[in-house]
Amino acid sequence: MLSQLVAIPSVNPSLDPAGDGEGAMAAFAAGWLRARGLLAQIEEARPGRPNVHAAAGAGGRDLCLCAHLDTVGVGGMEIDPFAAAVAGGRLYGRGAYDMKGGMAAVMAAAAVLAAEGPRGGRLSLALVADEEYGSVGADAYVRMHRPDGCILAEPTDGRLVLTHKGFLWLEVRTRGRAAHGSRWDLGVSAIGRMAPVVAALEVFDRDVLRARQDPLVGPASLHCAVIGGGTGVSTYAAECRLQVERRLLPGESAHAAAAEMERVVRGAAADAEVRPYFSRPGLVGAVDAPLSRAVVGAGTAVTGAAPPVEGAAYWTDAAIFAEAGIPAVIFGPTGAGAHGSLEWVEVDSVVAVAGVLAEATRRFWGQ
Ligand SMILES: [Zn+2]
Q: Residue ranges per domain, the chain?
């Protein structure tokens, strides 16, 4: 089944206009799940961007297993991205690791639980669109469904990830005064006014943010990511725009981080404008929460060893579930090459994750 998933292209069309999108993947998954006794339906997160919601059981606690349908693009890959070649216990292809391996584990666990007949709880599957770009799929899913907990099978190499960073995007704008390049007496370069802002942000990153440490995910950070300004070499630049990304520690407020960055920018250029335009919170989890205990207990029972508990530097859809009041953790298979030129997943780890997800669900239900 994983080979079939990898063979169906689902490159996110917001990342690559030539990408196929999630439609064929969603149709395949819904059909596969219906054939195994689950109620499965396609829900459009946006026109042309489908989620699959599937369910089994009635009454009791509702545990959601989540995977994303989309992948990043295939440019620069050194293998056939859709051949799903298997060699040495590894399955190769775009999305094998991030995260069709996890999706196969989620679907297999759901099939096992549906065949058993869920007792004392309900199962939901969230197969969502657009995780690799804007997460419109997860955003739509939590507006429509309210499970009591969610396990995302993003690839974690068999570790239980309870916490990860968030992020904040801001634009800084400085203004100058346009003038002929010879008119030093009239012109003011907006780029020249941005230079001390960039320098101040670099110092703030190095001296303040790097000292702000979380024991599981490391330090906060920022970087100046995109800059532009000026219209021609003989004209004083009237405007300069800088996009800055700030990575937030779990629990850090985007609002407070934006206010803090505005102070740093204003200290370097008093009339610079600072506009926060997008943010996502981090994920904060507890090892003694019922969902964490269910996964640790299941991992121990299925694999013989408790999964290591970790934090992650990257962001995931888990934060969207958590922000909606649904406790969420991340546990998935082993491999390498996410977004890279040589992507693979260890087949045995996909089977093990499927077993852990099914057992964690039973435990979360109280069986
Ligand atoms: Zn992913």
A: 2-164+282-365, 166-280
Tell me, in angstroms, the distance from the centre of ligand 1 to residue 239's CA: 37
**Spacing, Cα 308 to ligand 1 middle (Å):** 20
Q: What is the pLDDT of residues 337-366, one digit of tens each?
A: 999 999 999 999 999 999 999 999 999 999
Q: Give yes or no on whether 2-164+282-365 and 166-280 have one common fold.
A: no
74-81 — which CB contacts under 8 Å span 24+ positions? Answer: 74/9, 74/11, 75/16, 76/341, 77/341, 77/342, 77/343, 78/341, 78/342, 79/341, 79/342, 79/343, 81/9
Distance from the alpha carbon of residue 173 to the mean position of ligand 1, in angstroms: 33
Mean pLDDT score of the chain, rounded to an integer? 97
- How big is the chain, counted in residues? 367
Q: List pLDDT tens digits, range 268-320.
A: 999 999 999 999 999 999 999 999 999 999 999 999 999 999 999 999 999 99
Overall fold of domain 166-280: Alpha-Beta Plaits (3.30.70)
Question: What is the distance in A from the centroid of ligand 1 to the CA of 131?
Answer: 7
The 10 Å Cβ neighbour count of residue 207 is 9
Fold classification of 2-164+282-365 (topology level): Aminopeptidase (3.40.630)
